[in-house]
Amino acid sequence: MFTACSPSSAAIVTGHWFALWVSTGARASELLGAHCGDVDPGQQLITVIRKGTRAIQQLPASPDAFVWLRLYQSEINQEPPSGRDDPLWWTRRRPFRPLTYHAARAMFGRAAATLGANWTLHDLRHTAAYRMARDPQLPLADVQWVLGHAHLSTTQLYLTPMPGDVIAGLLAHHRRGHAIGSMGAADEQPDTGTPTPSGYRPESLNVLFVGGPRDRAADGHCH
To answer: pTM for the full model?
Structure first.
């Protein structure tokens, strides 16, 4: 999303939000409550106070998230206070003020609108949750801990596949089945053409549909 707007300063602002929220899965209010001393780039961790329980928790983030965060800090030229106990996020205009949830939501909404999208800050958390839950190498209990869900059943909601993923998976399934079925016949038939993406040869598809595109166009209808 933010790369589509690069290299503007607005892209840098939305970029570090996008990278941090999508990689940590934290709630918007949790990240906005972070202070400068809560960031540990060396360990790829950011400390937040969880909503509801008020527990202090470290969350891992991607390396890119900290690169974008540094770009954001360079963009504001370190003019706002940057002590350990000072807020991490600030408004871009003077007088500098700690960034609130409502201001962040408005800024993100404007950035999304430039792309013709209606994404919200909370959609970033949903994206992170879905990606984590669908990773077979990441235990669901770990995802629950990162997201701060009180019940595992809440995390399990993100196991529901998206339609696009289902379609891609089934197409891959059909390709594997076709490859297995055609292994025995590969040595018995001569190479008569380049396979289509489906794995079938063009002449085979022509026979199946009773003639090629030219034949159908001449007939004016499909058989």
So the answer is: 0.69
Beta bridge partners of 60: 45
pLDDT digits (tens, 9 = 90+) for 5-40: 444 555 555 666 788 989 999 999 999 999 999 999
Strand boundaries in 50-143, DSSP class E: 56-60
Phi–psi pair at 49, nearest 5 degrees: -105, 120
Query: Do residues 46 and 34 lie in contact, with contact meaning Cβ atoms separated by under 8 Å?
Result: yes
CA distances from 155 to 7, 139, 148, 215 (A): 36, 11, 9, 54
CB-CB contact of 129 with 115 (8 Å): no
Q: Say whether the peptide bond before residue 95 is cis (omega within 30 degrees of 0).
A: yes
Backbone angles phi, psi at 90, to 5 degrees: -135, 155
Give the three-class secondary structure for 115: coil
Number of residues assigned to the chain: 223
